[in-house]
Amino acid sequence: MADAAQAEQAAGKRETWSQTHPGEPVVVFDGVSLRSGGHTVLDNISFRVMGGETRIILGPAGVGKSVLLKLANGLIRPDSGTITVFGENVGRLREDDLFTLRAHIGMVFQEGALFDSLTVRDNVAYRLNEDHVAEEEVDRRVREALRFVELEDTIDKFPSQLSGGMRRRVSIARAIISDPELVLYDSPTGGLDPITSTTIIEIVVKQRDFYNSSSLLVTHRLQDAFTLATHRFNDGNNKMEKLPDGKVNENTTFLVLHEGKLVFDGSTLDLVHSEDPFIREFIE
Amino acid sequence: MAENTLDRAAKNIILSLQDYALLSGRALSNLFRRPLTLADIFTQADSIGVGSIPIVLLTGFFTGGVLALQTSASLSQFGAGAITGQLVSFSMIKELGPVLTGLMVSGRNASGMASELGSMIVTEQVDAMRALGSDPLKKLVMPRLVATVVMLFFLAILSDMVGIMGGGAIAVFMLGQDGSQYFHSSYQSLVFGDIFQGLVKPVFFGFIIASIGCFYGMSTKGGTQGVGRATTQAVVVSSVLIIASDFVISRLMIGIFGR
After folding, report:
1. Whole-angstrom Cα distance, residue A154 to residue A160?
2. d(CA A69, CA A74)
3. A116/A122 Cα distance (integer angstroms)
4. What is the rounded CA–CA span in Å between residue B68 and residue B173?
5. pTM, whole model, 2 decimals?
6. What is the distance in angstroms between the Cα of B152 and the nearest Cα belonging to chain A?
């Protein structure tokens, strides 16, 4: 409950890009291709992410899902096509301008990518410390973010003292501390056991339902993807629960990559009823 | 076939040189951008400079000692044993102090930088840093560059001093020379050009150590094996460049100062 109030308070602090640009997509990929080491990684990828929408990118390992997220964050540049994030062409922005843009984007890396020489507090506070935010404010927001992922008691620990699941949760706390309007999750449950994976997905659902930010989530675990689409967060009992009457979250949709190409772009129901042989095989 | 291989190799070398120049240039340009990350520079100065003091002192002392030991016999044959101090100070200040300090610091720190940054690359920490709105060149490379250049300058002075003292200790206690004469000839023979040459070299060597260490670290590819490869390459390339640039700087200084 307290988290919900904080989220509302945080959301009320500033107008989001989606509010100032209603109806405009937050992320647009238009004919994006990328080659590396003589072979095509991504081939003519086009899709968009609207405000408040969660897009789940599915596909087998090594198909270019993580690369796609890095392209969206401007960490790598495409060979052709345009990527527009918050109305800016990230392929053409200078690195300095990208730093400004990234203030509105949170990213959770595959293995957490926590700075191993810094404590959990300093990891989560990294962006705030770089912005020279006052110490008391940093402390308050770090505790708030860690409370959100239910890891407040690890604040003085180092990443090496945490389990894999805890590291991912700290990574989520680090990504959301500045209330980003777009969150990029790169396989947040990869390599984790089913119980820990469910805990992480519960946090992703909580983040989606509280902050209503847009997100792109990469996974190859169908179970996690469908849990996201069929569940919501109940802040009354602070637990994730299934949507009633077999409903699905309409703002959670799917993209499927296969051999560098986008082979599916649609809703949960479209995915489940797809006749495409690859998708059928992938789902079944 | 052979032409294609040569063509590819030449392109790779030119691309690497371009990447190296860009990394060094961008890292240095961060020196003039505010806010200056002084805390990071001091942390690196402590790790690179203060941490290297024991090996620099030991190397300097024994180099000066062995120099006195080996040369005094030859000098004595010509009745010039009295200028042992001059030879030791000359050699230490102009050549051995800066070069040996550079090589020792390269072995300790170029490898450390390459492995630390390489590990950060393969675990996506550098990408995470960029995603969090922070420039890795400003946060990681620039402090290492500045700290190495500044600290190597002082480490070389320390090495010169300890080397002359080591030579003095050997000359007095083992070769039975007069201490006053040794230190007097050490001091009297030096001119501005010698000191200048000895102080310019560590600045270049410091830049080589840090820029090569950071370049190989930031270009690491291929997991833990790649980190190992980057570390080895950083030490080998920086050591060879130190010796090669020492020759070029020496020639230039002889051209300018005539000695």
Report:
1. 12
2. 9
3. 10
4. 11
5. 0.86
6. 25
First-to-last C-alpha distance (Å) of chain B: 50
The ipTM estimated for the assembled molecules is 0.87
Report the chain B residue with the minimal C-alpha distance to residue A110. Answer: B124
Structure tokens at B64: 């000066």
Chain A with chain B: Cβ pairs closer than 8 A: 50
Q: Which of B205, B229, B20 is nearest to B115 (CA)?
A: B229
Q: Show the domain range for A129.
A: 2-283
Mean pLDDT over B50-60 rounds to 95
Give long-range contacts, CB 8 A cutoff, 24+ apart: B17-22: B19/B215, B19/B219, B20/B211, B20/B212, B20/B215
CATH number of the domain that A260 lies in? 3.40.50.300
Total of domains in chain A: 1
| Calpha distance B47→B110 (Å, rounded) | 12
Nearest Cα of chain A lies from the Cα of B135 at a distance, in angstroms, of 8
- In this prediction, residues B196-218 reach a mean pLDDT of 96
Contacts of B128 in chain A (CB under 8 A): 107, 109, 113-115
Q: What DSSP letter does each residue of B162-216 carry, written as one string? A: HHHHHHHHHHHHTS---HHHHHHHHHHT--HHHHHHHHHHHHHHHHHHHHHHHHH
